[in-house]
């Protein structure tokens, strides 16, 4: 249901989905304007050097547990921002897990609702 929830908790899910950014966009759509997302996910120990793009390990669907995309904390923050969230905060401690908090903006670009990467796709 679009815009129905004030808070959504996503725990131990993001690394199991085939498209984590799309899953986050769908979660964003479920939140009421200003609603909060709390996420917990597995992370990798590797870190990209400063200035380099953040890392995400792709394990594919054949590895036990069906883990697919396992990010470093900066990649998790990028996923959240790309999905349309604001006030993104991600912990870098507690390996092999990370915690994140973010908010749905009170107003946001409607193209995020479709899950497309570009507003002119359709």
What is the radius of gyration? 14 Å
**Oligomeric state of shown chains:** single chain
What gap, in angstroms, lies between the N and C termini? 22 Å
Number of helices: 3
Number of strands: 6
CATH class: Alpha Beta
- CATH-scheme architecture: 3-Layer(aba) Sandwich
Helicity level, as a percent range?
A: 10-25%
Strand content: 25-35%
Order of helix and strand elements from N to C terminus: EHEEEHEEH
**Pairing-aware structural class of the strands and helices?**
alpha+beta
What is the CATH topology classification name?
Answer: Rossmann fold
Q: What's the overall average pLDDT, rounded?
A: 83
Q: Look at the structure and name the CATH superfamily.
A: Vaccinia Virus protein VP39
Question: What does this protein structure show overall?
Answer:
This protein has a single domain, classed as Vaccinia Virus protein VP39 (Rossmann fold), CATH 3.40.50. The strands form two sheets. The chain has a four-stranded mixed β-sheet with strand order 1-2-6-5. 21% of the residues lie in helices and 30% in strands. It has 122 residues and is an alpha+beta fold. Strand 5 (86-90) and strand 6 form a beta hairpin. The longest helix has 11 residues, at 20-30. The chain is built from three helices and six strands, in the order βαβββαββα.
